[in-house]
Specification:
Radius of gyration: 20 Å
Strand order of the largest sheet: 1-2-12-9-14-7-6-3
Distance between the termini: 49 Å
Strand content: 15-25%
Shape: globular
Oligomer: single chain
Largest sheet: 8 strands, mixed
Order of helices and strands: EHEHHEEEEHHEEEEEEHEEEHEH
Helix content: 25-40%
């Protein structure tokens, strides 16, 4: 049977303490593990954690910003700071070497002793729209807490010991998070149909992506690899972007009370494709090809929960144990990577410009 939707996982069991929730947490962690192995994408039901009105308010504030005159938006231009924090014009962001048909504002974890002449070490630029900064800062804090909840649930799903989880926790407890507020205008008639082309490593950051989107249907599509399966569902006549892979594109439409979550990848570090969860699990978890496509206005707020800037990402013993137990052929270990070193390189490749950002 062809899958038609992604799994939905509630975080409610992880919000309450007590023995009565132990079994529910274990079951949810197992479901989460299976989703990471089979999909790399899933819905998180956060209705017990976030009032539905909160993300709706964020969408309203985003719409207010993106409908401002261009000269007002340009006051927050990336070039005012470290070329990472701030506003990127329509088609300034690049995926797979092609300009994306969206505009956005990027925010990063604040740093001490900021210096806009250093990569990633500037200050965030906030629109002067009433309640904008306050509302988004509340969302940031909630997504940071959600990141730690999901990380612990994933650790449980991998069967990590308490000591192993504490060691991993120390690599993500000061997350160098990233948040983007993205506006997608209607696509021009001569456009190829993509607002943001198919990607798994060129746009998403390294650990977990939490995506809130407005209710626009068929805007996010996920490619599920299934050997022998040929695409049957309607994908609006769009060209194939999955190369020679067999599988099916499915819509990941917004569900009330849920956000979409995917395990991200990092790449192009020292000419290698090094992927956070793929490295941590030594290939057991893999991220999934996905793309944004639509012909109407659309607003998205992805929050990227990342490792600490100085975190060393390396294979976990728990993942090795699973692969031995399930007789999965173990290849050589993935190389380790310092997350901050990668991030500086990645950010410089994501935007257009006369000389590129942080070109060496």
């Amino acid at each position: 049977m062809t899958p038609s939707t992604l799994p939905i996982i509630s975080i409610a069991p992880f919000l309450a303490n007590g023995q009565s929730n132990t079994q529910a947490r274990a079951a949810a962690s197992t479901t989460l593990h299976n989703a990471c192995v089979s999909y790399g994408f899933f819905y998180l039901d956060i209705s017990a954690y976030v009032n539905p009105s909160e993300p709706e308010e964020l969408t309203t504030l985003a719409r207010q910003f993106f409908t401002l005159p261009q000269e007002e938006k340009d006051k927050l231009s990336l070039k005012n700071q470290d070329y990472a924090r701030g506003y990127a014009r329509l088609r300034e962001n690049v995926t797979n070497g092609k300009a994306d048909n969206h505009e956005g504002i990027d925010f990063y974890r604040p740093v001490e002793n900021s210096d806009k002449t250093k990569p990633l070490w500037g200050e965030n630029q906030w629109p002067e729209i009433p309640e904008f900064k306050e509302k988004y800062n509340i969302w940031i804090e909630k997504m940071k807490m959600l990141g730690m909840i999901v990380m612990e649930a994933m650790a449980n799903g991998l069967g990590m010991t308490r000591e192993e989880w504490q060691e991993l926790r120390g690599q993500v407890d000061d997350s160098f998070w990233v948040m983007r507020i993205i506006g997608y205008p209607p696509l021009p008639n001569d456009h190829d149909g993509f607002s943001c082309g198919a990607h798994k490593y060129d746009v998403d950051y390294g650990c977990l992506t939490f995506l809130h989107a407005d209710p626009t249907p068929s805007a996010l599509q996920v490619f599920l690899r299934k050997p022998g399966l040929v695409q049957q569902s309607d994908v609006s006549g769009l060209p194939d972007e999955q190369g020679g892979d067999e599988g099916v594109w499915i819509n990941a439409d917004p569900i009330p009370g849920c956000i979409v979550c995917n395990i991200g990848e990092i790449s192009n570090y020292a000419d290698l494709r090094l992927k956070v969860w793929e490295v941590w699990t030594n290939g057991l978890y893999r991220s999934t090809l996905h793309r944004v496509v639509h012909r109407g206005s659309n607003y998205r707020i992805p929050f990227f929960y990342e490792p600490n800037f100085d975190a060393t990402v390396k294979p976990l013993d728990a993942a090795r144990r699973i692969k031995v137990k399930e007789n999965i052929v173990e290849e050589s270990d993935y190389p380790s990577v310092i997350y901050g070193n990668f991030l500086v390189k990645k950010v410089g490749n994501n935007f257009t410009g006369e000389s590129g950002r942080y070109d060496n």
